[in-house]
Known about the structure:
The chain is an all-alpha fold. The protein has 5 helices and no strands. Helix 4 packs antiparallel against helix 5.
Amino acid sequence: MRKQPSLLSSLRALPPTAWILFAGTFLNKFGSLVAPFLSLYLTRMGYSVAQAGFAIGAYGVGNVLATVVGGYSADPRGRRRTNLMSLFSGDAAGRAAAA
């Protein structure tokens, strides 16, 4: 009977591209932890629970809309161009909101 490789040796055998995808996915999912802490932060800053809930709801609606628009845009423009547009428009929106 052939011995099955260990989990650690299987992980070490993965190509660098898989590790880059893993790191990106980890950071993306780790960033989604912001929402619960955002509600705590907002309520401690003096906003009401309803206002904090509205901010979290707006964040969720924005995520859904971004997914739909990004998916729709990726077909005619390509994934790379759509990702670049997303990064730059997100930066512009953040700067406009901070001003």
